[in-house]
Amino acid sequence: MIVNSLSLCYHNKLILAPMVRVGTLPMRLLALDYGADIVYCEELIDLKMLQCKRVVNEVLSTVDFVAPDDRVVFRTCRREQSRLVFQMGTSDAERALAVARLVEDDVAGIDVNMGCPKDYSTKGGMGAALLSDPDKIEKILSTLVKGTRRPVTCKIRILPSLEDTLSLVKRIESTGIAAIAVHGRKREERPQHPVSCETIKAIAETLSIPVIANGGSHDHIKDHLDIEDFRRATAASSVMVARAAMWNPSIFLKEGLRPLEEVMQKYIRYAVQYDNHYTNTKYCLCQMLREQLESPQGKLLHAAQSSREICEAFGLGTFYEETTQELDSRRAELLAKTPEETREPAEDPSGVIKMAVKFDRRAYSPQITPKTCLLEWCRREKLAQPVYETVQRPLDRLFCSVVTVAEQKYQSTLWDKSKKLAEQAAAIVCLRSQGLPEGRLGEESSSLHKRKREAPEQDPEGPRAQDPAKPGDLCKKPFVTLGSTKESPLEGW
């Protein structure tokens, strides 16, 4: 049994609630600035996290958990480490423990979502679906308490009857968790339904561990003083704030709410500094603007299609330019320190040329893909068409592909979520290894581009592969055959 490091105290705390799409790094840091004691990340699903690799991002000074397609699933930094609780969505004890061990060095606590009523959570047996399976709840929490070095908590909703609710929370307490957050509504209820302060109070009077009251934003919490009133009404140890903090994170400030314009500008600065995706930034700002979305500034925000445009809408264009230049300089510095050989394609003992690349649809024209570029090149050079060998890994159902061209095999070391994406990545490795165009937006046009505009894209292995090749402007650099092997490079995976 692992002894938990119970350094995080849940007594008398102001807490930012876990909120999907809202509880990313910029919002968490902003909440801390305004006085939150503890911040929860948005719910992250166990299966998705188990696909991730922990990466230290030296450019942003963050720790990133990166999916096989190079998307950042979870990002954190040192400043929040001692006050950050990682909330997961799970329905399996062993997966939950694996995720906890993956992130425990970068967070202060581990929480299990047992209250989300949304279909995407409950259909997988997660969230509020767990409330009807106390045995599973007990197994998940007991496994986490015994197996992780961080305090474990859970967040629940109340059951139809007070008797059943109290019976459940007593059983939860017996697992050894550090605290329990209670949203004072039933599974089927929504924010417009009144929160049951009486039920939360009964739970707080029954348990010996801290009870965190949640669900007061709609009826009770309009400013900072209301938070304490809600705590007293529920007799809870602490209060967790969701919607009121989403609308204006300065709700945590003792001195009172700050002007929304000031709050939003501060949020945007964090979003740019930590390379938050503009769609997430835009979503959070829209939640803050609410009824002002039809204002001139709201319309500018609605029209924004990049972080730059968001900054310009709020008078932060200069800040964006200066910050991105600084980040670019850091990247260049780090790249200069990276040995050149680590950036070149590598050939492993089996003769397969490998690179860590991905196919990002947004970087390519809908009609021109790496696979079509490679096929066209092979036709013009009178080579056999590329042959793709793709396998699926049972553990996480991800795909990896090897393409053979002129008896040489090429493969991306990054696994993808679909067969098509894996094949495109393998084609990219081949094209880049030979210095050939791959169809990225901005590359010089060629006869291939012209021809593809005239007809919709078809499977390169389909009937189009039988069409006669047409002359084009693609690079005619020949492939260098580095040897071949009859053994599949994917054998044994």
TrEMBL record:
Q: Which cofactor does it need?
A: FMN
Where in the cell? Cytoplasm; Endoplasmic reticulum
Q: Where is this region: Disordered?
A: 439-493
Q: List the catalysed reactions.
A: 5,6-dihydrouridine(20) in tRNA + NADP(+) = uridine(20) in tRNA + NADPH + H(+)
Which key words tag this protein in UniProt?
Cytoplasm, Endoplasmic reticulum, Flavoprotein, FMN, Oxidoreductase, Phosphoprotein, RNA-binding, tRNA processing
Q: Which terms in the Gene Ontology molecular function aspect does this entry carry?
A: flavin adenine dinucleotide binding; tRNA binding; tRNA-dihydrouridine20 synthase activity
What broad class of enzyme is this?
A: oxidoreductase
Quaternary structure annotation from Swiss-Prot or TrEMBL: Interacts with EPRS1. Interacts (via DRBM domain) with PRKRA and EIF2AK2/PKR (via DRBM 1 domain).
- Give residue ranges for domain DRBM: 370-435
Protein known as:
tRNA-dihydrouridine(20) synthase [NAD(P)+]-like
Query: Which family does the record claim for this protein?
Result: Belongs to the Dus family. Dus2 subfamily.
Q: What does this protein do?
A: Catalyzes the NADPH-dependent synthesis of dihydrouridine, a modified base found in the D-loop of most tRNAs. Specifically modifies U20 in cytoplasmic tRNAs. Activity depends on the presence of guanosine at position 19 in the tRNA substrate. Negatively regulates the activation of EIF2AK2/PKR.
Cited Pfam families: dsrm, Dus
Q: What is its EC number?
A: 1.3.1.91
ATP-binding as UniProt keyword: no
Its Gene Ontology cellular component terms are: endoplasmic reticulum
Q: Which domain of life is it from?
A: Eukaryota
